Amino acid sequence: MVTQYVGSSDEERKALVSRTRSGDLTISNREMFEAFKIDPDYDAYGVPLDKMDPVHPALFANNTLWPHFERLRNEDPVHYTEDSMVGPYWSVTKYEDIMYVDTHHDLFSSKATLGGISLGGVPDQDNEFSIPMFIMEDPPKHDAQRMVVTPMFLPKQLVSLEPLIRERAGQILDGLPIGEEFNWVRSVSVELTAQMLATLFDIPQEDRMKLILWSDTSQNIGDPEYFETPEEGFQILFDCLNYFQQIYDQRKTEPPKFDLISMLAHDESTNNMSPQELLGNILLLIVGGNDTTRNSISGGVLALNQNPAEYEKLIQNPGLIPKMVPEMIRWQSPVAHMARTALQDTELGGKKIKKGDRVCMWYISGNRDKDSINNAHKFIIDRDNPRQHTAFGYGVHRCVGNRLAEMQLRVIWEEIMKRFSKVEVTGEPKYLASSFIHGITDLPVTLKA
Asked: Domains along the chain?
């Protein structure tokens, strides 16, 4: 057996976590990462079960997460971790248990004031760094604010958006080099989603990369490779607030239009939001519309290359694309987890969960649960029931833009297959150091005509 953490003592780690839980954003990100530094010899089966901590971002950055969740599903599907950089929490790793938690918002709350939807979220401190959003609310407020933006994602609206998405996808793909290596993530995945987001917000296309910067900042805010402290990252997010506050205020004075900011500005549920709540809901829409789709686009290219027999199926029958798309989303699981807070003492998987406990639904693990998904460990582009997965969540918080995400993936792959014989991965992928968004930051590829 090896020791999981080698960076500092139990007492030093707990002191850092306590400061974080109190809302202290001045803690050095590097100090936190060093305190929870993982022994290089550590592996999923090398420590006692009760010491396993699957939330550690190094597991995701190094793509070594899979055996950890496999062990938990097999040996302890509802697992308690006491010592972690996010404090104590329960891991829910089986499909059916995840579905139970997600569909019982009366037992498991998403509220920001209790910790919100991600591990590491702290109870809302009601200060300038507080960014409430409707996904971090329970009904009825959640439902009222979610309904404001829902019309943008209804089937009739998606039909009208498809020609524009197809035109843009074609332009992006036609501008790529043949036979030269480039980063697929930045040139394709990011570009398509950024253009789409700018359209949904009705902001100038030349500002689209600001959206990507703010999305990336929200995901990297605790990473020492990007920011010295979380507070430093917030300064960039405040630029996002300043940008959208002006647009929000202006659209209140204009006739209603069919864009997300105008919708927020004219509905009584959202037309009087505080600056923090406006920032929170804007970031929710940016991350929801960017990170999930872009990582499924990138993850799909990687999955096909890692499973050449499936790529050959696609080449022989591009008509499989509609089935392949949800399989790519399942396989990538771009939202790795969602967290909740127990509202009362309850029981799950034979474990006693106490009121106030943090409970983590590992969507990325549920999507590998062989007891609920046939051949869950295999990437299969012609599954009989490809939409049976946890990637979009369940219940009142099910992803509002799930059909838009699927449509963008379908369209981009239809256009890829018209142009290239293969998108070949020609370098090692680089992964996001995050246990919340399962992301790919770099994917070197070379196109074959």
From this structure: 10-448 (1.10.630.10)
